[in-house]
Amino acid sequence: MEIFDAITDFIVVHDESQNVLRVNRSLAEFIGVPPSNLIGVNMRALVSLANESPAYGCPFCHTSSDGPDEYVHHVLERMYLVSTSRIHASASERQHTIHVLKDITDRREAERRYRELFDNIQEGLFFAVPSGHFIEVNDALVRMLGYTDRDELLKIDIPTQLYTSPERLRRLNEVMQQHGVLRNHEEVLRRKDGSAIHVLINAFAVPDAHGQVLQYRGLMLDITGLKTYQAELQHARDFSEKILNNTQSLILVVDTAGLISYANRRWYDAGYEQRQLVGCPLSDIVSPIRRPVLTEALNSTLSGHPVDNLDLQVLRGDGRVGQFSVNLSPMRDEQGIVTSIVVVMTDITDSAMLQSKLIHAEKMAAVGQLVSGVAHEVNNPLTAILGFADLLMENSEVPEAARKDLRVILQEAQRTKQIVQNLLSFARQMPPQRKPVQLNGILRRTIQLRAYDFNSHGVEIVEHLDESLPAVVGDSHQLQQVFLNIMNNAYDAVRETGRPARIEIMTASLGTYVEVSFRDNGQGISQPDRIFDPFFTTKEVGKGTGLGLSICYGIVREHGGEILCHNNTGAQGATFIVRLPSISESASMGVAAGVVQR
Questions:
Q1: Sheet arrangement for strand 20-23
Q2: What is the band of 364 on the pLDDT scale with cuts at 50, 70, 90?
C-alpha cells in the first residue's frame, strides 16, 4: 500500500460492475476526497474526469477487450496517457481492471517544440545509421538536396547517391568512430539532379551500451553560395594582384601617418627589400629637397582631395635618383573617412632626359642659327679688314715697321676667318655626304673650335698626327661631331682630377684601317661595358643626357668602323679609339652609299 500510494501517476482499480476497488493517494488528492471514500463508488462518479460521456460505465474503458489498451486522454488543460490492464487476482475471483493515468503534458509540449524546431529550422537536420540510410530528416534538408519529400530522401542510399564516392563516407565514418564528433567539416555532395552542393557538416555519434555507434545526428549548412562568392573573390584578388605586380608603375599604400603598409612587386624588382619599405615613412624614399612638397600633397589627400602628376625625385634601391610622376588617391571606409592613401609612381626619368635633350637640341639649333647670323655679320667687316690690309701691304710708301704690323693683322684676320668658317661648317645642317676626307684636317678644325676653352682652363692638348695618313670615305660633319663629343668628355674628365690636365690625340695607319685615339689623364671610366648605352651617364643630373657616345657609336658603325674605350693600364685616365676603313678598303662601300643616297 505504501508503494502503491507513493506512485505519482493516477491509479484506479475497479471490478466488472464498474465499482472502485482501490485508488492511490495521487488520484484521490486530485479529486479532493480521501481514498477510503472512493472505495465501492461506481466509476461513473469519475465522469467529471472525462471530456465526454463514456460509452461504458467507466470513463477510461474505451473497449471491452481483455487485452491492454492505451490512449491519450485530456483532462482540463492537462494531457494524460491512459494505460488499461485487465487481470484476475486469483482463479476464483472475477476480472479486475486497472487504469494508470500518466501526466504527459510537459513531455508532449517538449515534443511539440522539438518538432517545430526540427521542421522549421533552415539548416538541414538528419538522423542516419552507419549502414548508409537516413532515419529522419527535416524539410530544409529535403529542399537543400532537391528531393520531393521526406519519404523520397529517406529511401536513398547515402554512399552511392549522396556522396561523390563511397570512400568519402567511409573516411567520415572512421572519424566518427574514433572521435565521436565531426565539427565544421566541408564536403561536396550530390543533389537529386546530380549537381554539386557544398555543405558544412557538424555531427555527433550516438553509441549503444557497448560503445557501438547506433546513429549519426547532425546538421548540414549549404555553403555553395559562400564557396562561389569566395571563388569569385579569390579570382578578383588574383586578378588585382596580377595587375598590381605586373604593371610598370610603382604602387604603394600608406596609412594616415605616412607609413608604408603595402608595396607591389615592382619595388622589389627596383632593388628594394620588404624591410626597407613596409613600416617605413614614405618621405624616406623621396629626395630631401622635395619632401615638403610631398608632405603638402599627403595632407591634401588626407582631406579627401586626390593629387595628380606630382613630380618627385625618388631614391631607387641602388641609391640613384629617378624622376617620377606621382598620383595620390584617398581610400575611405564605410563611413567615408580616409583611412589610407594609394600612391602610384610612374618612372619618367627617360622621358625627362628625352625632353631635356629636345630642349638642348632646340637650344643648339637656335645657337646654330645665331652663330650663322653672327658669322655672316663678322665676315663683312673681316673682309674689309683683309682687303684694306692687302692694299696697304702693296703700297710701297708704307714703311717696313708698319708692314710688320700689317702682317700680324693679316695673319690674325685669316685665323679669325678660319674660325668663323669652322663655326659655320659645324652649325650648318647638311645631309650626310660620303666622300674621301682627311681625318687630320677634321681633327685640327675640331681642336680649333675648343682651343680657347682648353687654353683658358689649363688643359694641354698634345697632337701626334701621322701626316702620311691615308684618306677615309665619310661625312666630315658627322666625323667632326664624333671627335668633338669625345674631346668634350675628355675635357670634363681631366678637369675633375685636380692635377695638370692633359689630352693626347694621335692618328696612325693600321693596314686597312685608320686609327684615331684620344688619351686623357682623368679619373677613368667606371663601367666601360655600358659607356655606349643610350641614356647611360656617370655625370650629375643636368650635366649629361647619356646620348652623346651612343650617337657617336652609331655614326662610326654607319661608316663601317668601330669605336672602343678602355681605362689606361698602370696610369690615370681612359683612352677612346676610333677605327675607320682606309680609302682602299672603303671606296666601293662609299660609292654604294652615295648611290643609295641619290
A1: 20-23, 10-14, 95-103, 78-88, 69-75
A2: low
